[in-house]
Design a protein that fits this description.
This protein is of the alpha/beta class and 313 residues long. It is built from eight helices and seven strands, in the order βααβββαβααββααα. The protein has a five-stranded parallel beta sheet with strand order 2-1-3-5-7, with helices on both faces.
Length: 313
């Protein structure tokens, strides 16, 4: 019998759950021998309020390991997260939505009421529609990372996280050892050729072509940041390559978009990237939408609506 584990998803797109399934062949021994899954909406039919809806309180069984994906966007997410904290001895935040707010926290940069109006009442969708109030959990004032609401014991970011690292984390916990996870940045695992200075001095638009020789390995390609592309490798946690090999986007000759969140625990990808651009000789004012650098890490109060400017008399 394995160690009991419960999984839950909050504001999740299910990509983290697919990453769990993408563990592949190793998933079978993981969920049949290493773990004893007692609750996982992705994999098993275990209802919140009894199997026939007869319960009146949320039922999540006790488990040694709890895994939550997604950020905390509404009152239902908050209730489920608190219940997971109560029922699980060790709680893991899995995926960048859970660790740093992820894509849903982009909403934190907008006025919430205006966003809801736009989502539910735009003429392009359903003219005259109302913002629903029945059977839709009320939103919180913003999107939160899980550790802003409950104590989180371990975090594994990624959008989605790397399946090999998910397996390593879970097996290490069960074996009572420290998991072998990359503690470096994407740049630290990138073989692209660096010469220490940008060739252009300003950020290029994403639609421009990267310069590389298709016949050459990535190690022969000039660093994308030095080519002038907004590659967020310097400020983004490594791991998308499973700890070795070329980072996923770089292997496709595409700049890193920052999906693993900041390298440092309380790092700010926006501020760190401004420094990164400056030290590569790139004018940060050439970045058109600087706040978009927080596209994966807008929780923890990083991304807020812009204050309205009051015109001077
Ligand atoms: S981290 Fe990415 S893959 Fe996971 S739930 Fe969020 S958006 Fe989806
Ligand atoms: S900035 Fe991008 S291309 Fe350059 S080394 Fe870092 S990850 Fe690689
Ligand atoms: S290269 Fe950057 S954006 Fe691409 S998968 Fe890796 S961490 Fe995410």
């Amino acid at each position: 019998m394995g160690v009991t584990a419960a999984m839950e998803w909050l504001g999740s797109c299910s990509g983290c759950e697919i990453a769990f399934l993408n563990i592949g062949e190793d998933l079978v021994p993981l969920i049949t021998e290493t773990l004893d899954l007692v609750h996982a909406p992705l994999l098993m039919d275990h209802k919140y309020f009894g199997q026939c809806g007869e319960g009146v309180t949320l039922e999540i069984p006790d488990a040694v390991i709890g895994i939550v994906t997604g950020g905390v966007n509404n009152r239902e997410h908050l209730t489920v997260l608190r219940q997971m904290r109560k029922k699980c001895r060790l709680l893991i935040a899995l995926g960048t939505c859970a660790t740093h707010g992820g894509i849903p926290a982009l909403m934190n940069g907008q006025d919430q009421q205006a966003s809801w109006q736009a989502i539910f009442k735009t003429v392009s969708t359903d003219p005259g529609a109302e913002i629903p109030e029945v059977e839709v959990p009320p939103p919180l004032d913003r999107v939160y990372a899980c550790d802003e609401k409950v104590k989180i014991d371990m975090q594994l970011p990624g959008c989605p996280p790397n399946p090999e690292l998910i397996a390593e984390l879970l097996v290490a916990i069960v074996e009572g050892r420290s998991p072998v996870l990359p503690g470096k940045s994407v740049c630290d695992t990138c073989p692209a050729r660096r010469e220490g200075r940008s060739v252009v001095g300003k950020v290029k638009r994403f639609i421009e072509n990267v310069e590389f020789d298709p016949g050459e390995p990535v190690s022969g390609m000039r660093c994308l940041l030095e080519q002038g592309f907004m590659c967020m490798g310097p400020v983004t946690a490594g791991g998308c390559n499973g700890g070795e090999g070329v980072p996923a986007c770089i292997s496709a000759r595409v700049p890193c978009r920052g999906c693993f969140g900041p390298v440092r625990k309380n790092g700010n990808q926006l501020l760190d990237m401004m420094n990164g651009l400056a030290s590569n000789g790139i004018d940060f004012k050439s970045v058109v939408d600087r706040r978009s650098i927080l596209r994966f890490s807008g929780a923890h109060g990083r991304l807020r609506p812009l204050k309205k400017r009051v015109a001077k008399e």
